[in-house]
Amino acid sequence: MSDTIEERACALAVYMIETGATVRAAAQHFGISKSTVHKDLQQRLPQYNRNLYEKVRQVLDINKQQRHIRGGIATRKKYKGE
Q1: What does the H/E/C string look like for the chain?
Q2: Long-range CB contact pairs, 63-71, < 8 A, 24+
Q3: Best CA proximity match to 15, nearest among 33, 29, 36
Q4: Would you list the domain boundaries of the chain?
Q5: What is the pLDDT of residues 7-41, one digit of tens each?
Q6: Which of 2, 8, 28, 77 sits at a 20 to 30 Å CA gap from 37?
Q7: Average pLDDT over residues 45-70
């Protein structure tokens, strides 16, 4: 991405709010690393747009609560050969 860090952080937040995507899915969509997505959303976004940060924080919390379920599904698929 050739735009500024602020624009990237806001674009990431809007994408995650609209789609409910995980950090990993957002990183893949934007072609950046997971750590960059995390840093943009957790450290940079609150400085630029507090309201947007609070909305994306809700999505991140939901994804964190569901993480163990997605991991279990992935493990089941791995060993069942699906």
Answers
A1: CCCCHHHHHHHHHHHHHHHCCCHHHHHHHHCCCHHHHHHHHHHHHHHHCHHHHHHHHHHHHHHHHHHHHHHHHHHHHHHHCC
A2: 63/20, 63/22, 63/23
A3: 29
A4: 5-80
A5: 999 999 999 999 999 999 999 999 999 999 999 99
A6: 77
A7: 90
Sign for the CA dihedral angle at 12, 14, 17, 21 comes to negative
Tokens of 42: 């957790």
What would the two tokens of residue 67 be?
């993480």
Amino acid at 4: T
Contact 60, 22 (CB under 8 A): no
* N-term to C-term CA, the chain: 35
For the record, the structure tokens of 38 come out as 């995390």
